[in-house]
Design a protein that fits this description.
Helix content of chain B: 25-40%
CATH superfamily of chain A: Cytochrome-c3 Hydrogenase, chain B
Strand content of chain A: 5-15%
Low-confidence stretches of chain A: none
Largest interface: A-B, 37 and 34 residues
Helix content of chain A: 40-55%
Structural class of chain A: alpha+beta
Strand order of the largest sheet of chain A: 1-2-3
CATH class of chain A: Mainly Alpha
Strand order of the largest sheet of chain B: 1-4-3-2
Radius of gyration of chain B: 16 Å
Mean pLDDT of chain B: 82
Number of helices of chain A: 15
Shape of chain A: globular
Oligomer: heterodimer
CATH architecture of one domain in chain B: 2-Layer Sandwich
Distance between the termini of chain A: 38 Å
CATH class of one domain in chain B: Alpha Beta
Mean pLDDT of chain A: 89
Low-confidence stretches of chain B: none
Largest sheet of chain B: 4 strands, mixed
CATH topology of one domain in chain B: Beta Polymerase, domain 2
Structural class of chain B: alpha/beta
Distance between the termini of chain B: 45 Å
Number of helices of chain B: 4
Number of strands of chain B: 6
């Protein structure tokens, strides 16, 4: 018996609105369609009416989870147009915040995934670790989200010696528990039953569709903007790209846990080698000449793209934002096919979707 | 360090360029579009060639050939997005459904204030015929 099962746009299982239609044959999904746009706020249009510092504040509000990534990528684009050289200390502070953001985003996703899997004790364990990271971000920036840590030409806030010690202590704590989390996830029967062989995205499909970030790396595609096109001093740090070959939901869980290890490594190196000197080029509204560029940043969910066009005036002529979920969402129907309706929620969640990012 | 290189091409060069990039296993980062001050569209195909973005740009064309058969869903979604948000049409795009909110929900009930995809496409088509 064939059915069309609608999910959303507003549904108790969804944190954000999206509409999906599952075409089913009995329990099995034969096809699926995704419709987006329910969170569209016209941010790109609004950005053409704001000056460059106001736009930083605006783009931070595209997303609550990866707010620093949006501000950073926009600032990097402007700096490339203007040919600015950001002080090294400013670049390191940006990297530290970006990796703390990646950690808390991955822990957030792990918690949600484990809750959907039905492993609520690990979900709470994961979110307990996340809370330690959120406390540090609050200590560094004054906010749990929308940190305001970036300005055009550097960082807005310095890191003191006391804060440096607090970050290192927090890293020691979560590093131990991350190893425990990894070992449990790799061996746990409940996790294996719900995730292994579920929601397959083959390496060929990931290449074909152009998946990015952890979604691609979990399909054994070693792409990472921090390595492929380094920026903001990422080439100063020793870290690996986490990949996993099984191409299923299990791989997406494992890749994110392994990426936590790499992020901890990067933050430690940045703190140990934090250069002395200024953190920015000044806090006045910058003068940006006419120009255009597209800049890429490895956000927690994958490659974030900002295309910025300026005309030498005080506002942006054009800002176009494309986020990793926009690249990964087309993989969802492919992953859903031949899986059961009961696994649909977990498979959709496995791309770590952010619809407010995608809709702008 | 990342670099950005802008290259102007004609609409006839869009598909050969896409095929050359696909054959070289180059990732299509995005297709961006915007409307110039003179009201004409400007569409850029952004390819990641190592650390450099090669931005192949077509200026002043409102009807372009699709590359969704070359770059699959990686191009189909950006083309559908541009088709809905701007007066740009992609010929040969094998999907005339809306991406941003469907025309209709179930039992014929649609979203209010959502222009059906067919009307959007007709608008571009009529404008093109009117200007030629």
């Amino acid at each position: 018996m064939s059915y069309i099962v609608p999910i959303g746009p507003y549904h108790p299982a969804l944190e954000e609105p999206v509409h999906a239609r599952l075409y089913t044959d009995g329990e099995s999904i034969t096809d699926a369609k995704v419709f987006i746009g329910y969170n569209h706020r016209g941010i790109e249009k609004l950005a053409t009416q704001k000056n460059f510092i106001q736009t930083l504040v605006l783009v931070e509000r595209v997303c609550g989870i990866c707010s620093h990534s949006h501000a950073l990528c926009y600032a990097l684009a402007l700096e490339q147009i203007a040919g600015m050289k950001v002080p090294k200390r400013g670049e390191y502070i940006r990297v530290i915040i970006a990796e703390l953001e990646r950690l808390h985003s991955h822990y957030l996703w792990l918690g949600i995934a484990l809750h959907l899997i039905g492993h609520d004790s690990l979900f709470m364990h994961s979110w307990d670790d996340r809370e330690a990271i959120m406390d540090i971000l609050e200590e560094l920036t004054g906010n749990r989200v929308n940190y305001g840590a970036v300005t055009v030409g550097g960082a807005r806030r310095d890191i003191t010696d006391d804060q440096r010690k607090d970050i290192l202590e927090m890293l020691d704590k979560i590093e131990k528990s991350n190893i425990a989390l990894r070992d449990i996830l790799l061996a746990d029967k409940t996790v294996a039953l719900r995730t292994q062989g579920v929601g397959i995205l083959t390496t060929e499909d990931a290449y074909r569709i152009g998946a990015v970030g952890p979604q691609a790396r979990a399909s054994n595609v070693p792409v990472d903007v921090r390595k492929d096109a380094p920026y903001s001093s990422y080439d100063d740090f020793d870290f690996d790209i986490a990949v996993w070959p099984s191409c299923d939901v299990f791989a997406r869980v494992v890749v994110r846990v392994l990426e936590n290890v790499e992020s901890i490594k990067i933050i430690r190196q940045a703190l140990e080698n934090l250069p002395k000197g200024p953190i920015n080029l000044g806090t006045r509204i910058p003068k940006i000449p006419a120009g255009e560029t597209m800049f890429r940043h490895e956000a927690p969910r994958g490659q974030l793209c900002y295309k910025v066009v300026t005309d030498g005036g005080e506002t942006n002529k054009r800002v176009s934002i494309h986020v990793p979920t926009f690249k990964n969402a087309p993989t969802v129907p492919v992953m859903l096919r031949n899986n059961s309706v009961a696994d649909a929620g977990l498979i959709i969640a496995s791309i770590d979707p952010c619809f407010s990012c995608m809709d702008r | 360090m990342q670099e950005y290189k802008k290259i102007f091409i004609t609409k006839e060069e869009i598909r050969p360029t896409a095929q050359r990039m696909r054959d070289a296993n180059v990732h299509l980062a995005m297709i961006h579009g915007f409307i110039n001050d003179d009201g004409k569209p400007n569409v850029s195909y952004e390819y990641e060639v190592g650390p450099t973005i090669e931005s192949y740009t077509v200026d002043g064309e409102s009807v372009l050939p699709t590359i969704s058969d070359i770059y699959d869903l990686g191009a189909e979604w950006p083309e559908r997005e541009l088709q809905e948000l701007m007066e740009i049409r992609f010929e040969g795009l094998d999907n005339d459904e809306r991406l941003f909110m469907p025309d209709t929900m179930f039992e014929g009930q649609g979203h209010i204030m959502v222009t059906p995809m067919k009307e959007l496409i007709d608008k571009v088509h009529n404008r093109k015929e009117g200007t030629e």
